[in-house]
Amino acid sequence: MISTGNDFQKLPLELKSLYIHAYGTYLMSKEYEEMTIHLYQLDNLYVEVWEDFVEVMHIKTYNTNRCLSKYLNDIDISNVLHG
Q: Are 49 and 20 in contact, with CB atoms under 8 Å apart?
């Protein structure tokens, strides 16, 4: 297993993607222009996996939960509010 975010950053894109799918916790996805962004939690990191519907194009990591603010409007909590 990778021990730090720095170790993860050093991996090539393909290995990052495999590692995220093996050890990350999927949180949600959203569409942006012609991309799909999948959000994962991986140890103490939040990770965005940017795909163009065919392949992973970019992986961006955050070590703070501030990155989550752009996802808040997409979370449906109606089941929680209305039982």
A: yes
